[in-house]
Amino acid sequence: MSNAAENAKLYGYLASFDLVDEFLAAAAKVRDAGYTRWDAHSPFVIHGLDAAMGVKKTVLPYIVFLAGLTGAAAGILLQWWTNAVDYPFLISGKPLFSLPANIPVAFETTILFAAVSALIGMLALNRLPQLYHPLFTNRSFKRVTDDRFFISIEAEDPLFDATKTRELLESISGRSIEEIEVHP
Amino acid sequence: MSATYTNAHSYLDNTGDDPAVRAKLVVGDNDFHSVTEKVCGVVERPQPKIWWVVFAISSSLTLVLLATIAYLITTGIGVWGLMVPVGWGYAIVNFVFWVGIGHAGTLISAILFLLRQRWRTSINRFAEGMTIIAVVCAGIFPGIHVGRVWVAYWMAPIPNQMSMWPNFRSPLLWDVFAVGTYATVSLLFWYMGMIPDLATLRDRAKTKIRFYAYGILSLGWRSSNRHWHRFEFAYLLLAALATPLVLSVHSVVSFDFAVSIMPGWHTTIFPPYFVAGAIFSGFAMVVTLVIPVRKIYGLEEIITARHLENMAKIMLATSMMVGFAYSTEFFVAWYSGNTYEAFTFMNRAFGPYAWAYWTMVTCNVLVPQFFWFKRFRTKTVLLWIASVLINVGMWFERFVIVVSSLSRDYLPTSWGYYRPSIIDILTFLGSFGLFFTLFLLFIRFLPIVGMAEVKGVMPQAHLDRPGHRGHGDYHGDIGGAEVLS
Amino acid sequence: MQGNVLDITTENRHLNGVMRPALIICAVMAVIGFGGALFLANTTEHGIEYLLETYLVSFAFFLAISLGGLFFVLLQHCTRAGWSVVVRRVAEAVAANVWVMAALAVPVVYGIHHLYHWADAGAAAHDPLLAAKAGFLNPSFFIIRLVIYFLVWGVMASFLLRTSVAQDASGDPKLTLRMERLSAPGMILFALTINFAAFDILMSLDPHWFSTIFGVYYFSVSIVAFLAVMPKILYALQMRGVLPNAITVEHYHDFGKLLFGFNVFWAYIAFSQYMLIWYANIPEETEWFLKRQTGEWATVSLILIFGHFVLPFLLLVSRVIKRRPLLLAITGGYVAAMCWVDVYWLVIPEFSPGVARFGLLDVLCFLGMNGVFSAALVLRMRRHSVIAEKDPRLEESLAFENA
What we know:
With 184 residues, chain A is an alpha+beta fold. Chain A is 48% helix and 13% strand.
């Protein structure tokens, strides 16, 4: 036990909040203090929190748009290659390659590619799945998926200072701050 | 809680019409924690007796389904009532019926999301689950209808030793792509929306198995706002993609009929008309399921009277659209001057299948007229009965379309009267068994209400602050002090 | 709600004189447009016939805008929408302009024998199909139906506008409830009338042809045309200092989104109609599209695909244009022009197969009708506030923010 405690490294501090308003104001203060490696955790999406944290807009829409275009091209190419080139056969007097009849499938592949890329892109940009995280070692953090709001500041942050950061968090949360440790 | 309210109904009724007040979407003394408790309770507490009773019945019916399918595969399509000229019978009717039902979920989660209908949050998870299960039931029918199921892979563009490719100019192949894409995207949408709620179940887990199962399923979600930001955006994008997808799926299903030259099938209004019908039947099925579920699991404060009333209104609107399509078809059948077309419609209404036609009109057009009156929209028992009747009517709509046209084709010598065989009927009943079995398992193991979304529309989330009316991100800058004022 | 919601009494809510220059421009447009068109028609061969044809195009186009407005207002009431309250009065005025369209229908009735082949009693004698339809397609019943349509639309639009204006004075929330209750059955009347009006005014130009989706197609034209011109109207008002702060970029953004969505809806309906007829390839149906795929009309069809669907899709898919009122007004104007081309494509091939004879006459006739329509709109809006002042959901609309 003592051995483990010696090896443990500080991951960061965790402050908790009960009310949305307090939480939003606190996030804005941490942002204004200039921290960069910190995060706010809440059980649901809070409108205004992106602004309060200064989160930049995600690139996800561009990924999805490109995936959609790829899907459309793939759908058209697939139908053209299979029905007009590799295995041509005449059916109901339609041209071998006839766009009106190929639009439904091309549309579906567009949506399929785009939708799959939206989920995978979201997870990849979020670095998920990540089944272990130092924050999970904290018992009270379990309430983040229920009704409690948290702000964590990482020890890796260039502005991080063991006492000053603690004081900042204590002043804005009015509660004691918890230390999160990484166990190697 | 009941002590606070003398009249048990007064606080549950949030169907007021005062235009200056937006209805509360969660009633009673609920806070974030009580919502978590109520929703997770469904999964964490032992299931009530009724769950086991229904599960016993539905799983037995599922066995019937498996048995009839086994019999079909080992014997041949002849065990069904198919005949000349009615080569499409129950299997196609059931397929269209189930796919139609599978439209409500994505409609609620995607279209109502884009239209900022916040009330969707209480029912969208539930409806999405139902959607996926209905699509599973739908997928079975064309799968077994191909006869030689072991060559069903011919429908997919897989290089093979015969160097053949599927025919992409056939609407039946479009169906494969449309329904396949729809099933995939609905599943993604459903799963993605569930990740935060699975994390809630993980954090509340009392047993190791639960902890690991929900832990893996929730992918290590830690409610980080940097994650939420992309999550919200992905949700918006999926909604924007799923909206045209929903429309396309039933449109493609309608193409199966409408690209042909069969009277009664070949009519240009089919795509939007099928979509309206699908939404209609999907909402009816949501209502059929949600009324008992909210009662049994005590979710009336979250899935409120307002939700039911809104769904009744949507059913009324889509019923009118379907009725509009019926009458337009009838008028144009006369207006076109095409005698085959005119005959088909007279035959539908007054021919040998008139009983099916009038069942359809009664259930789909007349029954929903009661929803003009608030009394019927807010009485759950009446609403439930009407929703069941609508499902009956929508099944008959597909029956009328498939059978009445085919049984009177261009060649009078081959006219006939289609009767389903006992295997047809048992297969259909069996599909309900599968539907309810999967649905009960969904209730048993997964969160049936999107907790994270419901919490976001509760008053405690302060959505009513100016500048927080929409569901999107806040455009202004937030200063530390400004928010508290 | 809290105190930082805009107080609308500080806004300029009346068109007191600010629209006088615009009215003069409208009058000049009307006189030059219609006068020039008549002059040109009288001096060229078949000029009057050409004028009637292009008049029908512009008539159906401006009627579509009015009906789109009517649908929009009905829809806002049916769904108890909050976001749109600040712009609803303008939409109500656009809808009430359907009365002007009723007056403008007179030349169509006057030209019935040229425009509608079935109106010729002699034609039916040699054509069993026309003879079979004569009970429906005959001049007197056609006129009766037109009167019914315009009465239904006009009464609904006037009711919605008057009730809303009455609320400006009384602030009675019961009036909102009344409009909501009557809008639902109103929607049904609207669906039936626009459907049959589309059959009568446009589909019966080729009395042999039929398509059950045609009414829905014209509906999609109408809602797209309305949503396309709304940003321009709002922008023009704001440029003249009317409602400078009440209408925000958020409301423009929503119009942009709706325009995007309904334009895709138009494409969906157009594709459904085309694909089903193309695939089944039955002569009595295909001839309608064949006409539009032959000669110069093939080019117009391609212009519609790329100009009406692909380009607006790409322009409006991101929020760049939707959140810039001027750009949105320009894009909307462009889409509206495409809607006009669409109606042109529905009408003119019936008279001029193979040749898309677009010319000065079309422009003049369009300008003339634009002048009359816009002047009527301005005159109507001068009579009352341009915002629903005491709507119970006004605050919600003022504070509205978007995704």
